[in-house]
Predict the structure.
Amino acid sequence: MDLGVLTRENTATGSDLPVARVGDCVEVQLADFAELESGEVVKLILQADNARRQLDGYLTALLGRFGDLEGEDAVEELCRQFGLGRHRARQQAKTSNALKGLPTTLEAAKEGWISIDHARLMGESHERAALTQAQELELITLAISEDLDQFKKTVVRSEDERRADDGLTPQERQRERRSGKVFDGDDEMVIL
């Protein structure tokens, strides 16, 4: 089966989308797939992935608004109540905060064009070296077509170009980006 013929344009059409907005609520409609053939199953997988992307973007926007009202620590605590571990909750809070400076990127995530992980990388990069609107749009375009591993490299190159006038060599910038994290895991373990 050729998966290349299935694209966002020919799978996310009409009323068969798994996510529909009803007033101010979001309703998820799940199709029965027990009797479907592989091509139809792949189409549903692509639709479900698109719906997940939209919901991830929407959730991040909601968390950003909640952060405006209550603070980033409150966002982290709320995420912990979702059942997320400390690290993932902190990451979710930071992502919602970082994307406040990139409303076009957040909108692309809410529309399902890019994953929230792609958007997070852009937000983190923007905090280290500000993106212009043209650079943001260019990265969004690349995020649509690149997987996350490729896009990480693209973002690093873009950031290096934006920071090229800081007087540091590429090796010094790499050294600056090195980091280590130590945090308490959920099972009373220290994670490095």
